[in-house]
Amino acid sequence: MHGGTQAGWLLMALCAASGAYCLLRARTGTRQERRTARSEALMGFGMAAMAVPAAVLSPPAWAWAVYAALFGAAAVRALRPALRGGHHLHHLVGSLAMVYMAVAMAPAMTGGGGGGGHAGHGAAAGAGGMPLLTGALLVYYAFYVLGSAGRLLPVTAAAPGSRGRGTALGGHGTEGLRGGGAGGLPEIATACRLTMGIGMFAMLLTL
Q1: Inter-residue contact 166 to 63 (CB < 8 Å)
Q2: Considering its fold, how many domains does the chain have in total?
Q3: What is the pLDDT of residue 172?
Q4: Which residues are within 8 A (CB) of 207 and not within 5 positions of it... i.e. 6 or more apart?
Q5: What gap in Å lies between CA 8 and CA 182, rounded to an integer?
Q6: 6-10, 46-50, 54-58 — most confident range
């Protein structure tokens, strides 16, 4: 992706760390939890690879076709579980968004000449995909990030009969606890999803 070199390295590091943690989560838990963790690990590592600053390392032209094929297969795999709703629908949206970005960025990488980073950035601006679709994805990820951040905020609730004792709920709920998986802290799992949501939003902004 195109943008500041420091920002690109930071985004790459955060996405790679999130993917590594999701990969660790994939070793434990139920079958569904392991599948969810593997999907999130794939997303994290894929985003990390796409976030490498183009001025430092320009991927070959065929790399974007590999990204599109890989996440297209992930989208097909997530299609059936997504019909049941829940977090699988988010995995489907994320996989399709990765395919969209790979297709949108491919002309920028193959059509750039010898103009270096600035020429590549200009090509990206001309091959930025469809503004309406990009805008819709930006809105989706903006709400997703806000929702994930809200689940991380500590909420003190005094239950009836608790005589004023506050319970730190951490903003989670049943879905957040399930998302942590066995052997993993739900707060860290939610933080990883928040990180990848912010990363996806930032990458969509570059289109």
Answers
A1: no
A2: 1
A3: 40
A4: 101, 104, 105, 124, 128, 129, 134
A5: 32
A6: 46-50
